[in-house]
Write a structure and sequence with these properties.
The strands form 3 sheets. An 8-stranded parallel β-sheet has the order 7-6-5-4-3-2-1-8. It has a two-stranded antiparallel sheet with strand order 9-12. The protein has a single domain, classed as TIM Barrel. The chain is built from 9 helices and 12 strands. The protein is an alpha/beta fold and 261 residues long. The protein is globular. α5 links the parallel β4 and β5. It is 38% helix and 20% strand. The longest helix is centred in the N-terminal third of the chain and has 18 residues.
């Protein structure tokens, strides 16, 4: 069984090769270690292998995991953010990738003012138009960004995030990644805004994403293996989120009970 150091070395070589094909500097691409459903031991393993960014999909899971994890890591929220969890998100994460509306940005700005935070975010864009995916339509992104610049002084937008439709062929993702980059480039020119970050590409298509301009690739399965399959999670009462709300702790190390298939 390969160690994470060995796996990571191979992944970095693939990123470097993809960057070279696109005439880019490999140092401009960072790996986000997606540790959802894994325990805090995986965070330590990632840090020891030289990674510095943890990606989590759920606010609740990250809250307990971060408390039990090693320091020295930046925590990024890469999953959907509900407005009622904004305060917890701002207290837990260093960066939010998934802001998908002006209304959510307003809520983030308001809570940030209350707690003295200066959140850095990405706008999530649904470039594929799939109804199953979160994110705003490309045609509204510029207006939302302008609103945040003018009305949300606490919030700094650093770029965009997207997910390509699932496909066995990585090349199928290329037009979606390219569309996000071109959208970013156009908005930068029109608004005079600096949007250096593009979060796109996962374990199955990260090389294509790098070729199309990704600065952050979100990698989980390729680094840590397949996640455990979850059939159901029993909810427990929690004062922070309300009675009977599941806390999405799928690794078994957190405050919920899991039932495996």
């Amino acid at each position: 069984m390969e160690t994470l150091d060995t796996i990571l070395g191979k992944v970095k070589a693939r990123i470097a090769a993809a960057a070279k094909r696109a005439g880019r500097n490999p140092d401009d691409i960072e790996i986000i270690a997606v540790t959802k459903t894994h325990g805090e031991d995986v965070v330590r393993e990632a840090r020891d292998a030289g990674l510095s960014i943890v990606g989590e999909n759920k606010v609740q899971e990250a809250m307990w995991k971060k408390e039990r994890s090693v320091g020295g890591m930046d925590w990024h929220l890469i999953g959907h953010l509900q407005s009622n969890k904004v305060r917890h998100a701002l207290e837990t994460f260093d960066f939010i990738h998934s802001v998908d509306s002006a209304k959510l940005a307003d809520r983030i700005n308001m809570v940030a003012e209350q707690i003295g935070a200066q959140p850095h975010i990405l706008l999530e864009v649904n470039v594929s138009g799939e109804k199953s995916k979160s994110g705003m339509a490309p045609e509204v992104v510029e207006d939302v960004l302008r609103h945040i610049i003018e009305e949300c002084p606490r919030v700094t937008v650093e770029g965009f995030m997207t997910m390509a439709p699932f496909s066995e062929n990585p090349e199928d993702a290329r037009p979606f990644f390219r569309k996000l980059r071109e959208l970013r480039d156009g908005i930068e020119k029109r608004l005079g805004a600096k949007l250096p970050r593009l979060s796109m590409g996962m374990s199955g298509d990260f090389e294509v994403a790098v070729e199309e301009g990704a600065t952050w690739v979100r990698l989980g399965t390729i680094l840590f293996g397949e996640r455990e399959k979850i059939r159901s999670v029993r909810a427990e009462a929690d004062e922070s989120f309300g009675t009977g709300v599941g806390l999405d702790s799928y690794s078994g190390a957190g405050p919920t009970v899991r039932i495996l298939d």
